[in-house]
Structure formats: C-alpha cells, structure tokens
Amino acid sequence: MDIRKKYLLWMAGMAAAVLLFSIFALCAGQYHIDPVRVFQELTGRAPGGTADNVHTVLFNIRIPRILMTLIAGAGLASSGAAFQSLFANPLATPDTLGVANGASFGAVLAILMGFGAVEVQLMALAFGVLAVMLVFFVTRGMGQRNPSMLMVILAGIVISSLFSALVSLVKYVADPQDVLPVITFWLIGRFSEITRASMLMSVPLILAGCILIYLLRFRLNALSLSEDEAKALGVNLRLIRILVIAAAAMTTASVVSVCGVIGWVGLLVPHIARMLFGNDNRFIVPASILFGGLFMLVIDTIARCATTSEIPVSILTAVIGAPLFIILLRRTGGMRL
Amino acid sequence: MSIEVCAGTFSYRKNTPVLQDVSFSAESGEVVAILGPNGAGKTTLMKCLLGFLPWERGFTRIDDQYIRDIKGKELWKRIAYVPQAREPAFSYRTEDMVLLGRSPYLGNFSVPGKKDYEIAARAMETAGISHLRGKSCSQISGGELQLVLIARALAAEPEFLILDEPESGLDFRNQIVVLDLIRRLSREQGLTVIINTHYPDHALRVSDHALLLFGNGAYLFGRTEHMLTEDHMRAAFGVDIAIRSALINEKQYTAVLPLELIGREEKDTWTNR
C-alpha cells in the first residue's frame, strides 16, 4: 500500500482512538461515571449543576488530567523523535542532555528548602534549562568552534550524572521523617498531582515545543545525515540544532516539572512510528505526537483504575514499555532504520 | 561558469601544511579528477574547496564570487556535494532521500511541494534509478546508494557537482555506470564536475584535467593525459607504473598497471626536485 495512504489511515484511526479512549477515561475510575451522564455534563445539560460531585470530578480532576497526559505524551514522544534525528542515534531520548536530572535536582532542592508547589515547579524548569546550558558551556570550552554531536552527547552524560549525584546528596541530607518521602514521591513520575496552576505553567511550553518540532520536521531528515552532507544541503546546522535542543529541553523540563520523570515514551513511541512508516520525519513527528498522547493516556488510565490505590505511571511505562519494545523488535525483525 | 581555487593553503598543525598554494580551476562541461596517495590531502582539498574547512590562505571562487561571501542557501543551489556512499543512521526511502536535495530551496519550516517532487523524480530518472522508488536506502546495493546520492545532488539543479570517491567500493559494472553518468552530466548538461578518485584509470577515462597531489605539499595540475604519466605517478605513489593502451572495437582504452614498490629514498629524491 502507498505509504501516504497507510499513514493517513493510521492517523485517522489513532485520532478516533484518542477520542474514544478519552471518553472511556472520563467514565472510568474509582468513582465510576455513566457515559450518558458524561455526555450530559459535556454538553451543559446536566441535572446536578456545577456544585454536583460528578461535575467536580469531571471538570476539576478528570478533564485536566486527561489533557495533561495527552499533552505530556505528545511532548515526550516528539522530543524523542527530534533528538534521535539530531544525534543520528535511534536510542536517543528526550533526556539525552540531562534535562530530566537537572529538573529533578531543581525540584528536590526546592522541596528541601520548604518551597511551595509553584516554586518547586519553577525550580524544576529553571534547572532543566540550566542543565542544557551547562552542556553547551562544556562543549564550548573544548576549544572547538563547532563541537561535534558526539561531544555534545558526552557532555550530556557528564552533566546528567552530576545532577543525579546532586539529587542523591539532597536525599541524603533530607529529613527522613517528612521531607525524604515527599522527595521520593516527587521523583516518581505520576499525573496525580497536577493542578490548574501547574498546567497553566507547563502546557503552553510543551505545546510550543511540539509545534516547533512539527514545523522543523523536514529539516530533521537532513539533520540525521553527516554534518558535511547536511551543510551541503543548505541547512543552517547551528540554528536548527539550537532550535531542536531548545524545543526538546523546554518540553522535557516542563513535563518533569509537573509529572516527574517518565521514561520510555520518548524512545518507544517514535520507534513504533518508525516501524509503521519508515524514518521520514514528516510522518514520524506527527505520528509521535498522536501516538505519544494516546500511549500516555492509556497507561495513565490503567495506572489509576487497575488497583484501588494508584500505581505511579513511570513504573507502568517501564513495565509495559520494555516487553512491548521486545515484542515489536522480534516481530519486525529489528527496526527498519 | 567556472570554479577556481587560488593559492589555497591549509594545515591541521602549525607550519606543516597539507596543501600549499594549490591553484586549479574547472570550467563548465569539464571533469576534473583529484588524485594522490592516502593522506596526501584529497579529502582535505575537497573540504576546503567547499568551505567545510577554512582555507588558511587563498580562496575558492565561482564566477569571480568568493564562496565565503555567498549565503548558505544560494551557494548550495549552485554547488552540490556527493559524499562517499555510507549507509546513514536512519535510512529513508530512496525518493525521500533524493527529495532532500531540494532543501536549499525550502525554508526551515516548509516541506517540499509538487514542483519539488517533479524535479526529484526527474533527477532519479537522469541517474537511472526510477525503479528504486519505494525501496529503503538500507535495502539497496552500494552502487545503487551512490546513484541515489548523485540523484539527490542533481535534485538541487546545481551548476557544480563535487563527488568524493564516487566509484570507490563498487564492482566493475557499477564503476562504469557511475563514470558514464558523470561524463554524461558534464557533456550533455554542462555541469562542472570535480571528483576524488583512487583510480588513475578512471581519471583517464572520464576527466579532462587532473590534479595530482604528491603528499608533501607539491602538486601538478593539467590535462589528464599529461599529468598521469608513468613518471609522475611513480613519484606520487611510490610504485613503478606502466601505462598501456589498447584499441578494442575501434575504441581506445587505457590501463594503468602498478608494477613493484620503489624505495622510499628514491621517491623522496624525485619529489624534492
């Protein structure tokens, strides 16, 4: 079948799946809501008015949470796809430059100092961005005018492990009675803590990152070639690299600042798209945005409905992601990279 | 339309130039071959020529315009570069790979349109690879990949085509396919072509002028048959060489036979003359 047709069919199917599953997620949960009631609430013809319990659960808890999972999944998956092209490495993830560890350190430091939720989020964002800036600073200091991508990756590993050590330090000095549990809980990726305020701060940044990566989708193809090849195709490498790194860092730091560290999405989802459509980023980026959102929504819905107490979503992404990845690899006989 | 290197000098380490005062030029419809032993600076010359590495002294210009003064996208609409065929980290379908050649004509945020698809399809036809459409670059042979990369370069509708060892690692048939394509592009479409090659036979077959690097900064540039003589190549490569021609089916074929190694000292005396 023509690849373009296949792509359009899959995208339409996935969009429908997102819609259907969102409705399911609105109904499902510890507090079950009837689909008819959900429909009534959404169209503003509910019997109970805005003070009703059902209304509160739907509009203050489930709808924000569903939106957040869709947006976070889209952001992580598209950033992953973009980083894979940027580093010409199919195993790159949105955290390749240490953004998640930087953001984690900012957050736990803020918790240690007894800051409130908004400050914690701001610190996470700030340190996530700081981590990327440090990576640039380190590669700059090596005396090369145009550092190779390998240098950037190595610097990313260095900065990442530095922040990981600092996170350990904060945990070590934190009061084991009341602060340490908060920190540990925060570090586990989850969607249970989102609020209007935290969404307002992160969603615009994540969406901006997604849009930027989407706009650059054709350039990403050239970016994955060797440096001289990309230059000879008239690509302004410096500019495009900075844009991609800024978009992915902004997205990842924002997601971490609201939901903690959630792995696997940025690696797994782009690969599913690659197995279906090949490596052309004109397909991979939009497919990652859609599939990433759906993947995250499904996992988060399982996380909050499977047991009476919620399972942290980052644990589920790993537990579901790892075997799924192995099955996909086996069935397709490896990636068509 | 011509491309010209004037007194180009480049060194990786201070005071030990790999290339010293190299000057040569290529005119429209001409093929220039660059030859020399490993490490003599063939690839460096190509990188400096294209501006990937900065000349220490000297410059490259096309039609009296310094290439460093031409804005990125404008430059790469005129010059197309074909790297050595290596399988990329992510393999794209052949037609998407060729479509990438349209990049200099597209803004950062745009995707190729109908016209770009048509030009890319024509480039694939010219390179004789229309039948590879739909295949991934990882599923095709090395020779086919080389043709895909040439088609990608042609998709930019360039005036100058610069190829880095285009026939390296290919079998006899594919070598001739690539060489004939290069010849056709220069003769019929008036492209100015510069190639790096390890094979004097290929240079004799396809090029009008040759630039022979000796590996100590010295070089020769002139008509291919005058440059690639037994004496010159003996000095450049440190190997005794015999050149034999044969008339087969009313066509002249030239073969370059490497005979035996010559002593280091003898080589040095010759090149220092």
The chain-level mean pLDDT of chain B equals 92
Please count the helical segments of chain B: 10
Write down the overall mean pLDDT of chain A. 89
What is the topology, as strand order, of the major beta sheet of chain B?
6-7-8-3-9-10
N-end to C-end Cα span of chain B: 36 Å
Give your account of this protein's structure.
The complex is a heterodimer of chains A (337) and B (273). In chain A, 75% of the residues lie in helices and 0% in strands. Chain A has 337 residues and is mostly helical. Chain A has one domain (67-332): ABC transporter involved in vitamin B12 uptake, BtuC (Orthogonal Bundle), CATH 1.10.3470.10. Chain A is globular and about 65 Å long. Chain B is of the alpha/beta class. Chain B contains ten helices and twelve strands. The longest helix of chain B is centred in the middle third of the chain and has 18 residues, at 172-189. The two termini of chain B are 36 Å apart. Chain A binds chain B through residues 3, 84-85, 88-90, 215-219, 221-222, 224-226, 228-229, 231-236, 239-240, 243, 278-280, 282, 336-337, and chain B through 47, 50, 52, 72-73, 75-77, 79-81, 83, 86, 88-93, 96, 100-101, 103-104, 106, 108-112, 134, 136, 138, 156.
